[in-house]
Amino acid sequence: MTMKILVLGYGNEFRQDDRVGHELAPRLVAWLQERGHEADLWLGQQVLPEIVYDLAEVELALFVDASVEILDEGWRLESLEADRKLEGLNIHAVGPAWVLALMEDLGLNRPRAYLLSVSGHSFDFSEKLSPDCQVHVEAAWKGFLSWWSLIEDSQG
Q1: Are 66 and 120 in contact, with CB atoms under 8 Å apart?
Q2: pTM summary value
């Protein structure tokens, strides 16, 4: 069964490991398209409120971002629910859960949503991932492929 999917990679692509979304999201989209899904890519420095209209058109949203948290396996994939709490002091700090809440407030259809986080180690100025983060990206890639196979198996 094919799905309509939006993969959103975000972060500052000039701040080393913060570019994780820009590195991993295009790979995920290409792989999903090869599997026959209608997968689109959105890249940005931060999640923006206006993305709600694109999200309302898909069945599944996958947000991909770096994390300053050192995650047990170097990455984490988690289901997202709507949450109106801002992650910072202003609208420039909205996250995926806040965007989902905005969709509810606007009466828009909300897709199933997941956040794929990858542990970052260095956020200095650079256009290359740190070696440690690159290892975590590969682990996240393999973990996502395993998770996706479970999704496909459950659909029949």
Answers
A1: yes
A2: 0.94
